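User: Design a sequence. Structure:
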């Protein structure tokens, strides 16, 4: 073997070995604002190049073999080299994104391994292609073709995992019909109309805007009790057996041009079956436990027409339950290491968790919060009184978009923390008692979009200023009280 080819072979094998070792490299502290993390964020852009280029190579190889046109071999040279370089660039960017700490979990680990295997396969494919072109040994071309096909299979698998991370695990299959026909719901006559049918309609058409974390008009529709509570209009959303007096029904049957029509312009409206179900349920009962076997023939027919959509709703609910169980298991393992307690948030009508200190409390600091960053969207409540949380920890917490309640009394926060925390879109309760928050910092409070209660007992904020803020901020109760710890 000629010396340049030998050196190239050794370098290729060394690079392949280095790639295979990446998943075993321990991840230290992330540098979220660093240049390497910026390069990692290029992964979604770079990943499309090897997908296109690598899939073109076997097509061209087949065309060259079929038409006997070796002149196209130079195009294959360029495509293979480009796909090799782009796959390495995409893999490196993906690894840097992985090290940033923004992603974790079994699906991420599978995607990481898929990317590593794909990159190694591309390297070896390129090496075998060179061997085949130089006729280093007799079966080099056959091995090259086999590894090229394997690389494409690895590409499809890894791409599917990446798509599952961004669009959901069932993105490709959710629109497919069920194998063997549509499955039937067990004991359909025992369906509870509100919980199992009406809530399916709300899930599809209403909850994007009327959930505990985004309650347009102050209205939450994620439970029966929330519906009874109504919204800012103070009108009765639900009057049992009186659909025309129920604001819920009145809004959905208004002309689409009416400003109060729901869903609003640009959102998909309700179908005839959905309208009939909501009207029938309110007219005949309006109660949460009303069952289908007690309903009129007309309402039963409307539910039957809605059955395909209902099945999709139930599948999605089952999938969310599985995701909740998996996330809960992963969080419990991490929190066990961090000496923290995690549980599903009992006050949230969604798949969110509450985080709190263990008893007796252990040492918790900014790095503990940083470890939880990959799961930041999973938390709605965090209670860490007396933890060693500084303003850096407040910055990490400002990246938890679903936080509604945050209890940080007796921590090491200063006024700078309020600048970070004001970016939380759903934060309603904030306890900063016994911290070094000062007079200047509290002027950030008017910029908190959803804040309802803030506790400032024994801070550096003057009592007169607390009283003045409480009067000025009509939607926020600013209190000189110690407040709750959870």
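Assistant: Done.
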């Amino acid at each position: 073997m000629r010396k340049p080819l030998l050196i190239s072979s050794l370098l290729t094998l060394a690079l392949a070995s280095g790639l295979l070792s990446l998943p075993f490299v321990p991840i230290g502290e992330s540098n979220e604002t660093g240049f390497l993390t910026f390069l990692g964020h290029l992964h979604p852009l770079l990943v499309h190049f090897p997908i296109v280029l690598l899939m073109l190579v076997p097509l061209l190889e087949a065309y060259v073999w079929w038409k006997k046109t070796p002149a196209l071999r130079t195009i294959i040279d360029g495509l293979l080299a480009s796909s090799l370089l782009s796959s390495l660039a995409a893999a490196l960017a993906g690894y840097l994104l992985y090290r940033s700490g923004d992603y974790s979990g079994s699906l991420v680990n599978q995607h990481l391994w898929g990317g590593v295997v794909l990159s190694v396969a591309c390297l070896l494919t390129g090496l075998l292609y060179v061997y085949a072109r130089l006729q280093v040994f007799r079966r080099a071309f056959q091995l090259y073709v086999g590894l090229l096909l394997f690389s494409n299979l690895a590409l499809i698998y890894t791409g599917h995992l990446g798509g599952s991370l961004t669009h959901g695990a069932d993105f490709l299959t959710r629109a497919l019909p069920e194998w063997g026909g549509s499955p039937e719901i067990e004991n359909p006559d025992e369906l509870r109309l509100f919980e199992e049918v009406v809530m399916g309609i709300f899930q599809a058409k209403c909850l994007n805007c009327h959930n505990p974390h985004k309650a347009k008009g102050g209205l939450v529709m994620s439970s029966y009790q929330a519906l009874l509570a109504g919204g800012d209009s103070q009108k009765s959303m639900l009057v049992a057996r009186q659909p025309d007096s129920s604001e819920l029904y009145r809004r959905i049957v208004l002309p689409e041009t009416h400003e109060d029509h729901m869903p609003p312009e640009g959102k998909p409206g309700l179908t005839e079956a959905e309208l009939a179900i909501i009207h029938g349920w309110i007219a005949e009962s309006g109660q949460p436990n009303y069952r289908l076997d007690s309903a009129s023939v007309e309402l039963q027919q409307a539910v039957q027409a809605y059955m395909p959509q209902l099945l999709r709703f139930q599948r999605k609910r089952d999938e969310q339950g599985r995701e909740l169980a998996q996330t809960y298991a992963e969080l419990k393992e991490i929190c066990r290491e961090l000496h923290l307690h995690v549980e599903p948030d009992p006050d949230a009508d969604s798949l969110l968790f509450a985080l709190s200190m263990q008893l007796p409390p252990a040492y918790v600091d900014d790095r503990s919060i940083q470890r939880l960053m990959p799961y930041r969207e999973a938390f709605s409540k965090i209670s860490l009184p007396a933890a060693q949380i500084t303003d850096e920890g407040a910055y990490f917490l400002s990246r938890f978009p679903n936080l509604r309640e945050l209890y940080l009394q007796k921590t090491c926060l200063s006024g700078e923390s309020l600048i970070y925390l004001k970016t939380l879109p759903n934060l309603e309760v904030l306890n900063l008692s016994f911290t070094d928050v000062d007079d200047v910092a509290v002027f950030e409070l008017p910029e908190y979009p959803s804040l309802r209660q803030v506790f400032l007992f024994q801070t550096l904020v003057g009592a007169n200023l607390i009283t003045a803020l409480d009067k000025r901020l009509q939607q926020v109760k600013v209190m000189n009280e110690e407040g709750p710890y959870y």
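The CA atoms of residues 276 and 402 lie 34 Å apart. The beta strands are 210-211, 214-215, 340-344, 353-357, 379-383, 405-407, 429-431, 453-455, 477-479.
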